[in-house]
Amino acid sequence: MDTTKIDILFKKLTSSDKIHESVLLIETSSGDFNFTREYERDIDSPMLMASTTKLFTTTCIYALAQEGKIDLKDKISHYLQKEIIAGLHVYKGKEYTSELTIEHLLLQTSGLPDFYLEGAKSIFSKVKEQDFSYSFEDELKWINSKKARFIPGTKRKAYYSDVNFDLLGKIIEVANVSTLQEAYEKYIFSLLNLKNTYIACNESDFIPHTYYKNQRLDRPLFVRSSYASGGGITTARELMIFIKAFWNGELFDTTFFSKQTQCNPLQMSFYPIHYMSGYMKISVSSPFRKKYTLVGHSGSTGSFAFYCPEKDLFLVGDVPQIASPSSCVRLAMRAVLAAH
Q1: Which stretches does DSSP call E strand in 51-102?
Q2: Can you give the residue ranges of the Beta-lactamase-related domain (predicted)?
């Protein structure tokens, strides 16, 4: 495969004074093609996964469904105490919390608001200024203070919200009778022999940095609070092992995906990303009208893990710059088009 254009693409990205570090790793399913580019870090450097963590949470949900411990149609109230989630979803004066299902959370079709980006005093604006911790109960209070976006399961509606996956994390703990870390270990880490991938939950856990413009950000308290929606740490090398296993059926029966046919566009700030059953889907068109697909996930700190089935390419990496969270998605999209 001619990688000249990908090499130029990576050099152009890292020549920007906005990008302080980056790593890109591309492989085929067989591993007979491997392309690596590193800038001020390497494929074994720890990296924040942020929302790429959601793929790990998705894995546990499907593994539990495969074992019969949960059903995707189950109401979340079957697993979570009603007094804890009371008032979680209120739309136009009517409460719909009792109608929320695991499937709604997985597809981002719950209609629940987003606590991270919404509002002038969003959590994102706060975390840029200082480090802080928060609890699951705090998160639910923030959600309760905001308006739901639509009735759960409204056709052609999806709204990206971290609380969907943090609720899934709690359901995993109840269904597996374990902590989330133990579930990740059981269903992912031990199966793939991942030694440098973990969900941050202890003070002893190493937390990598990211950047906001020219400011290096160290936010260990916030990352440890981010839980099932964004608290993962990994390396590019191990993220590649995971994303291959995720799509190749090594972790769960991938026929679950064919049963979940919904593909809904997220809110405009996420364009052109659509959401499916626990992962993002992005359509990429070449100048010659050829269409390609990226499926996987990205994170607000710049991490990404995608698969392009048309070219049989797996792409993982990191562009740590939270002032431009779309940079990593653009890198993956352009790399797919450049690969030939």
Answers
A1: 90-91, 94-95
A2: 44-316
**3-state SS assignment for residue 11:** helix
Domain residues for 42? 4-338
Cis peptide before 220 (omega within 30 of 0): no
* Distance separating alpha carbons of residues 187 and 54, to the nearest angstrom: 14
Angle at which helices 54-66 and 236-248 cross, to 10°: 30
Name the phi and psi angles at 8, rounded to 5. -65, -40
What count of other Cβ atoms lies within 10 Å of the Cβ of residue 338?
17
- Crossing angle for the helix pair 327-338 and 4-14, nearest 10 degrees? 160
Number of domains in the chain: 1
Residue 118's CATH number? 3.40.710.10
Long-range CB contact pairs, 244-248, < 8 A, 24+? 244/27, 244/29, 244/314, 245/191, 245/192, 246/55, 246/59, 246/296, 247/295, 247/307, 247/314, 248/29
**What confidence tens digit (pLDDT) does each residue in 108-151 have?**
999 999 988 877 678 888 999 999 999 999 999 999 999 999 99
pTM above the 0.85 mark? yes
Buried b (16+ CB within 10 A) or exposed e, 131-142: eeebebeebbeb
Residue carrying structure tokens 């374990």? 178
pLDDT, tens digit, 9 for 90 and up, residues 14-54: 999 999 999 999 999 998 999 999 999 999 999 999 999 99
